[in-house]
Each structure stands twice: as C-alpha cells, then as structure tokens.
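User: what does the whole thing look like in 3D?
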Amino acid sequence: SPKADRESEPTLLSVQGDDEPEPALLHRSLASRPHNVESASGSYLTLSSGRQKLDACGGAAVAIIGHGNTEVTEAAVAQMLKVSYVHTMQYGTDSSLELSNCILAPHPSSPNFDHGLVKAYFAGSGSEVNDAALKLEKQYFFEKGEPQRKVYVSRQQAYHGGTIGAISISGMPARKVPYDGIMMPHVEFVGAADAFHRKGKAETEGEFVERLVKEIEELFERAGPKNIISFIGETVSGAALGCMSAPKGYWPAVRELCNKHGILLHLDEVMCGMGRTGTYFAFEQEGIKPDIVTIGKGLGGGYAPIAGMLINDKIIDVIRKGTSVFNHGHTFQAHPVSCAIALNVQGIVKRDKLVERCAKKGEKLRQLLEAAFAGAEYVADIRGGGLFQTVEFMQDPYTKKPFPKHVGFGAKVQLTTFDLGVAVYPGAGTVDGEEGDHVLIAPPYTISDEE
Ligand code: PLP
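Assistant: Here's the predicted 3D structure for the full assembly of 451 residues, as structure tokens:
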C-alpha cells in the first residue's frame, strides 16, 4: 500500500494514495506527503517508521545545537511561567532586552571585531525581518529628506524569503511566476557574485570582481544613484547557489560604491550568520561593516521561530532625530518566549565555544568530502566554509556542462543519501535560475566526528 511504501521505499515524499484520507494540513504539495518525524534528539531524526536519519542539514541550516536540548526547553518553560506574552507596543520584557545585548555584544569567538551595529529588532522569520529592513531603509531616506529614493538593488539567484517583499527582492524567477503582477516594483537585479558558474576561464579573480562591480556601477547610473535605497545580498549565498562566497574584494568594493552614493548596504545572514561559516557573522571575513544585517535560522536553533534585524547608528540617528518611531510592528515581535529560547541557545553557543567548534568541524567535513568525492565522476565542485558546505554535480564537470533539467541529479543524490540514512538539503537554483544539482550540508555545530 502507499502507506507501507512511504515507510520502506527510499523516497523523500510519497504519492498521496487514493485509499488514504488527505490530511487537512496544507503541505507544499497536494500530490505527495513528507515523512512524519516522531522525535528528534542530538543530530538524529526518528521517523514514524522507526528509521533514523542523521540531520546533516539541520533542517535548512537551522538546528545549530542539535535537537532535544533540555536546557533550552527548561528556559522556555521558565519564561512561559514568568511572562508568556505582552505586546511590544506598550511593554518590554527582560528576555528581549537581554537577547539584544547578547547578540550585539562582542562575541567571544572574535572579541575584537567591531561590527558597528547598535540596535536589534526581533520577529518570527527571516522573511519578516527582511521586509522590516526594506521598510526601515525606506523610512531612513524619508526622514532624511530623500523621499525620491525608491529602488532596491538585489542579485540574481538570491533568496531572501517568501513574503511579498522578500520574494520581490529574491532573484529566483521561477518562484515568482504565479505571482506575476503583484511583485514590488522598483527592484533591480545584478548578476550573482558566483565565480564558479560565471567567471570566464581566462579571467582572473580580480578581473571578475572588476566586471561585477562595473555591472553594479552601470545599474546604479541607469537607475540614478540618488534613487536607490539599498544594495541587498547574502554575504555567503545559501540555498539557491549553494554556499557560494563572493570572490575576494567584491564586498569591500560594493561597500565603497554604496558609500559613494549614500546607498545602504543590507546583508542577509539569515542562513550564513550565527556562526554557520565559522565566524559569528559571515561578514567578519570580508572586512566590511554593513548598515543592516538580517539574521534568523540559527538564532533560535529551531527551538522557536525567531529572526532579527541588526541596525547601525547611522540609520538609528536619523530616525531618532526625525519622527523617533519605526513605523512598523508585529503582534509577535520580540516574543518573550522566543527571545528567552534564543538567549539560551546563544548562551550555549558561547559557553561551549560552538562557533569555534563549527569552524574546526567544518574543516574536518571539508577534508572528508574532498577525500570521498574530489575527482569523482559528476562532482563539479565542493565549496563552503564552516559547517556550510555544498557539493555540486554536473554532467561534465570539466566543461561545466549541467545535467539536463529532467535528470534531477541533485534530487537523486538527496534521495539516495536519505535512503542511506543522511538528510541533506537540496539545491534550489544554480543553472540559469532553475533547479540546480547541488546539495547543502549544514549539520549542527555539536556534530561529532563519527556522525
Ligand atoms: N534569507 C535567506 C538567506 C534565507 O536562506 C531564508 C530562508 O531560507 C530567508 C531569508 C527567509 O527566511 P524564512 O524562511 O525564515 O522566512
């Protein structure tokens, strides 16, 4: 029966059987169902069938301290008993105040790094905080007396979330098709900072960076630099491009260009932040200071839906001198329980030196991946930093010829890997903005060498 198939066949999703009642829950697909996870502990998921899967991607780079940590659950219960909920319009709570201090204080993994960010805002998801950032950036210019600024500049193959604002600034056309006509206007795209797919064979890395920067400069000129609000990018591109760092010198050049025209730099570290690439913020490795950073996923480690926007004093000063009010809010903004959970997760990260551990385990993971797959047929690239690694597959790695789309090689790798007991995250778009053949490996920072 389909139900038995679901529990014994190597599938990630099984076809909804005619003889099975369709669940009331709207999953992504109406035609198939995901496996049910009965319980999760440490680095492992246990399915309803009893089979165990190593969670080698922490969901989508979320579960940074693994599953079932009772320190966190105790902190959650304690906060619920203390204050379960109040509205931020009128009230504050200790947990949200402490979390903002915790996130903005120098991190023990890089105590001398000065990020220049002075305020933190918390909401429920990466999409929400990216939307909040779009509004704050616009309000900054409104209050500064530059209301003509209306254009956001983002990058092809970026993913910034699923709400109308966040998907509008995402560069994945296939995800926008059904929503044609309701995307935000005034969003312009430049090419991805993706040396693997875009750098010419004869081009040096420096020449490639020059080309990328020229492309941005030309777009700024076309749109009118005084019309642009912000430049938005994932410091290390996550789901769509697969752990793709920008070539050396790219981010400093973008920062300089933004400074030249008074354009804000908004870095999206929802996936690559919170230690994932081996430093607390990925931009620590780039030698730049952004104006706004968005974080999520690892912030609460999956124990609560929580994400954040971190803001520098340049923006705060203008709002303070202007209306003094950020004209935006959510019912569950800075939710006391979510904040207490994130505070506890981040406390564990600091206490157990998990960012440092992530950097070390990342090197180990990389060595293992290279030993296992470098030079293997169809393995085109192994890349990433920290516990944020991607293996990309191509039909001909030498000429970088991708598999035809119908082959779905990356999905097959994911399926086979799952059957062998390891859950990895599928790529979402490397080849011409379409589904790409890569998998993402982003296990908890607590993962052991054996795991
Ligand atoms: N930004 C990046 C870089 C992401 O990877 C994601 C989610 O995958 C988001 C934003 C959206 O976050 P959420 O799914 O929590 O809304």
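In plain terms: Residues 60, 125-127, 130, 159-162, 234, 238-239, 268, 270-271, 296, 307 surround pyridoxal-5'-phosphate (CB under 6 Å). The chain has three domains: 1-34, 49-66+356-441, 73-351.
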